[in-house]
Design goal:
The protein is of the alpha+beta class. The chain is built from 17 helices and 32 strands.
Length: 774
Amino acid sequence: MLHQRSLALALALLPLTACTAPTDATPGVADVIEAAFTSNLSASEEVAVLELANTASQLVLDDDVDLDSRAAAGIVANRPLADLASLDAVPYVGDNALNKMLDYIDAQANAAVVHGIAEGSDEAAAIILLVNLSDHELLDDTVGLNSRAADNILDARFAGPIDSLTALDAVSYMGPAAFATLLDYVVNQGLVIPQVYVHGISEQSLLAIDMLTLVNSASEEALDDVVGLNSISAGNIVEARDLAPIASLSDLDAVSYVGAGAFDDIIEFIQGGYGGDPCLAGLGLACQWTEEAKVFADNNGWNDNMGDAIAIDGDVMVVGAAYEDGCTDAGDNDCYSAGAAYVFAKDGSGAWQQEGVLKPMDASGNGNFVAQNYDWFGQTVAISGDTIVVGVEWEDGCDPLINDGSADGCYSSGAAYVYSRSIVDGNVSWNQEAYLKPAQLRNYDYFGSDVAIDGDTIVIGAEGDDSCNGGVDAAPALDADATFCNSSGAAYVFERDSQGVWSQDAYLKGSNPDSYDDFGTVAISGSLIAVGADGDDSYGTGTTADPTTNNCTNSGAVTLFVRIGEGDISWAQEAYLKADNAWIGDGFGDSVDIDLDTLAVGAPFEDGCEADSSVLSGDNCSSSGAVYTYLRTEEPGNGISWTEEGYLKASNTANFSGFGTEVAIYEDSVLASQYSEDGCGQGIDSAMGNANCWNSGSAQIFRRDGFGSQVDWSTEAYVKASDSTEDLYFGESIDISGGTAVIGAIGAIDESACGVGEGNPCDTGGAYVLSLQQ
């Protein structure tokens, strides 16, 4: 096959054979133009045609302008084209090609205007980059979009980049006000830069970012054999980037043997599925998970159980220590098992530093600490941007306005505390923003048994709720009721308004509550809430199970709720899911997490022995555990569906390991743990060793490749602590955000905290931080 570059060079040589002096028999320039281009072009049209011919990539000329492929190749091979005569001299270029180029130019000039901003303009390019590259915190808190608009932008990006203002306008909660907010931000921040086009590609485009990521990272062999570049081009790119990163498309174009043909090869590869992933295997880009740090609280003490709960968002994480004994944040130890939560953030050098200690404060705003003995504050935590929520399921308060102990008496009714981050003159502080109680208080509801947050929405589990009424905003249980569905469970939704005030928005129950369903393990992403009920007894599998049956004890289930409406918000049940291989005692729904359109569910008591749910004869590994993944899809005419996509097992499946006790998901990565695992290995991808290190614990990271029927989940890392030891309980809590995973270990030892009388060593608990690095 003739390589693209060889074809270009061959075409470039063609005009040289005709470089003879004109004779009387040779048509003049004017005659040639008149013969080929019958349209009369204005001066501006001539400039526009030549600019298009000299800058557009071959792919654009072929596919977008719709030229004959031979004409497109000839134009690229013969440029720069100085005038229309030079363009006319290109083989296969004639009046038809000229008219197509004029039509394309007119279409570009008449690009759609969306809320006053023209498609393709410098402002549009800046906005498109902003919404595709920003996280929720930036869009919500910094740019100033409505939190639901920010949620929905991230949801829309899951299916692919938002590539136009028209596509952005189709996102729910986007409109004139949101566009004005985005425009103000990109203008005020100096993000609107005149676009420079190289072979038809804007330097300020997402495609340019993907191209530069690829050429700066891929091995020479991958650029040559996988991407399809000429071997000389691949070698020159690697040599150039060894001197300095290739920072722009102009720099890339300046590399010897890199031109329009090479650009087309790179673009074709990217549009074939590569999305700028810096860790894509097969390109010399494969990344590895590395233990980056181990963090302890500044005032760690014996048996604090730091790492009992953990959550991360970007470069900030919160770690619960439910058995910490402080009455204040100063490190005193007179309030037994009052609990605390510690906030850590990365500093400028990339090191994790303690940024705050969270303790309950007086709800009346008097600034007093109100820690109570045996509240176990910090047993559940969640974070989104600059907001943290801490669940306290054992709290006894009876009044949502009084939490100083004077109104206690509603035993284990539970509560949740909300904290917000502020930075003044470079000093960071975390301030209590709210003390939350449900509208209907009952003893032993355990409100706060699980918590989740996304933007301005918090969902709080109450696994002890006793109401027998199902659905959204059903009647709660009252003390006067004659019958109860003991511990059927519930979840509450709270919303924060523009004034920073939190209020209860919804009360969620399963469709058929029954005693000991334990409905209340919660997760949220955008407009979706998942609630696990590991005690659900219904019979059936997949999405067709009947929730009213009760003959598959503790098989477990997950219910999905979706937010509907843009004015008066309401929630509706969207799906009721069981595992495709559901069975008695699996505990499906003991842990749940959701990110965009993907759900991960842990079933720590599932008995499978291998990663194939159809092999039922292999169900002889008692409580080895499993994790299931589901994908949400929406097809015209078929509505919304949830499909089981993955059945994940630990690499070292063993009886009673409880894989999936904790699960976390971020885009295409799933992190799952089994803190009772007994392997004696140490470090990432270590030999699993024998099984004599009781409760050392481990975690496993899976990665999704492909899509739809071709999807595949594979193990990316088997993780043990670098100092793994017996009773570490590594994996007691986990979370993942981007290329960072955090793992709590309540048996971790902070030697510096072991004082006189506390034993040596002492179990303080701590957290391990992993990062994905090339």
